Amino acid sequence: MFGTLILGFIAGAVAPYAEPHVRRALEGAAMAETPLSVAELRALALAICLVVAALLASVLASGGAISLTVGAALGVFAPRLLKRFRGED
């Protein structure tokens, strides 16, 4: 369960870095004429990262969906919370 939480955290933290790669892949797949909004692109990048994390969790850990989701939520919002507590923004 803890391994799945960590995988979810990593998936949530890596999702912003996967956005340019997802955009490039969609443009290469002839979807350039159907542009995605920023929110849709972020959601798609997070979903792809979660699918990869779920596959890894099913192989390496117990594969619990709840701990994966909680870890992803922490991974997405932890950098923002840390910036807020540090007083950077």
What does this structure look like?
The chain is mainly α and 89 residues long. The chain has one domain (2-86). The protein contains three helices and no strands. The chain has helices spanning 2-28, 38-60, 65-86. Helix 1 (2-28) crosses helix 3. The radius of gyration is 15 Å and the shape is flat. The termini are far apart.
The oligomerization state is single chain
Largest sheet: none
Strand segment tally: 0
**Structural class of the secondary structure composition?**
mainly alpha
How far apart lie the N and C ends?
34 Å
From the alpha carbons, calculate the radius of gyration and give it in angstroms: 15 Å
What are its keywords?
single chain, about 80% helix, mainly alpha
Outline:
This protein is mostly helical and 89 residues long.
How is the topology of this model organized?
Layout: H1 2-28, H2 38-60, H3 65-86
